[in-house]
Design brief:
Elements lengths: L1 H18 L1 H12 L2 E3 L2 E2 L5 H11 L10 H13 L7 H9 L6 H22 L5 H31 L1 H12 L4 H8 L3 H18 L4
Antiparallel strand pairs: 1-2
Helix pairs in contact: 1-8, 1-10, 2-7, 4-6, 5-6, 7-8, 7-10, 8-9, 8-10
């Protein structure tokens, strides 16, 4: 009975995998297009962009990545801050404590404070920050690996027996009824039942689940 129980559990897991395939693909599509901050989406956030971002944080000359307005604000910050505090909270407090020598400087200091606050808000957001980007990339890779495992297993099953692969595809991924699948495959219900068992067994072997 023990072996039978394991087989039933494996069958249930395979069916759940196949039934969840479309939802899995939908989740990947949504996640690929979901913004992660700084103008990037997960699918566009390749290794070059990630390295560029890290380089910015590690102290490349500001003229290499700041526009003229941002460079001007950086100059204002250097002019009013004797020491650059560590952390955005301390930087924000220090900027807010400055009054500015004239109206233009006061305006620049306010803008600088707003930008620092925006950075703080972004870091506190659940979908922002470097850690969140890494987390989303890892999540996307996991989902894509799961999707590819299912599609590759079905493809390999098709090489073994194309009817088995089609049966699982139509029945569990596309959600067709038993009668509909039997009609598509040109078989009777008894043959469907026999093929279904064999298809799941072969799928389990190919997926390393048996």
């Amino acid at each position: 009975m023990g072996a039978l129980k394991i087989k039933v559990e494996i069958e249930k897991e395979i069916i759940e995998q196949l039934k969840g395939y479309k939802r899995l693909c939908g989740r990947i599509k949504v996640l690929e297009r979901q913004p992660v901050g700084m103008g990037y989406e997960v699918n566009a956030f390749d290794e070059d962009k990630l390295q560029t971002l890290h380089a910015r944080l590690k102290g490349l000359p500001s003229y290499m990545y700041l526009n003229k307005r941002e460079q001007h604000l950086e100059t204002i910050a250097h002019a009013y801050l004797e020491q650059y505090p560590v952390g955005t909270k301390s930087q924000l407090q220090e900027i807010k404590s400055q009054h500015g020598a004239d109206a233009d400087d006061r305006k620049d200091l306010k803008e600088l404070a707003r930008r620092i606050q925006k950075v703080r808000d972004a870091r506190l957001g659940t979908l922002r920050g470097i850690d969140a980007i890494h987390e989303k990339e890892a999540q996307l890779r996991d989902l894509m690996d799961e999707r590819d495992m299912i599609s590759n297993t079905l493809e390999a099953l098709g090489d073994v027996n194309n009817n088995y692969s089609r049966l699982l595809l139509h029945r569990y991924i596309e959600g067709k009824s038993v009668d509909e699948v039997a009609s598509i495959l040109g078989i009777v219900r008894k043959t469907f039942d026999r093929w279904r068992v064999k298809a799941i067994e072969e799928y389990a072997i190919l997926a390393g689940m048996s």
